[in-house]
Design brief:
By secondary structure, the chain is mainly α. The protein has a domain of about 50 residues. Strands 1-2 form a two-stranded antiparallel ribbon. The chain starts with 9 loop residues before the first strand and ends in a 27-residue tail after the last helix. It comes from Phrynosoma platyrhinos (Desert horned lizard). InterPro entries: 5-3_exonuclease_C_sf, HhH2, PIN-like_dom_sf, XPG-I_dom, XPG/Rad2.
Length: about 200
Amino acid sequence: MDALPFGSERLLRHLNAKNGDLEEISLPVVLQKLNLTHEQFVDLCILLGCDYCEKIRGFGPKKALKLLQKHGSIEQVVQHTCRQKHPLPDNWPLEETRQLFLQPEVAQMSQVVLEWREPDEEKLVQFLAREKHMNEGRVCRRMEKWRESRLKQTQSQLTDSLAEGSPRQQTMGEFFRVKKHQSKVRGEDSLCRARKGQAEPQ
């Protein structure tokens, strides 16, 4: 979800190739429905809690949204709310957190080289189990299930290709059915989430 305050205009979540459903969140629609600028949306995310600083105690989604719509910024919200009910965290890096969202350091595309290859299972286990302290047995069992799934998929694709007479890569549309509907927002605190199986009209 951090992709939204960082400025990603379209976020796809919960991709499920089995039944073709997914969830789509459009940032421009979110901002329009919530009546916020991108900077105010970042302030809303900070008020509700993020990875880079503590939140102000006592602000839920509805209250934080209403106050930001009325006052326009965290500084103005702070001026117009009770400090006893909503104390500021100690050493609160508000401006630094804003800058992380609004002006992040990003790598240039020319510096990024992406390769699609089979995963190195030994390194995955090393990373997940020994560096990130996940249960090694569980990681190994998941890798085994993934390997079996990959084998079945490869065999199925090979069978389909032979039946059609030539190899063919599946298209995105074969994984996910496209259904065009208007997205809806239920309640002011909603982040304009398209319901499962719906997409914003092009």
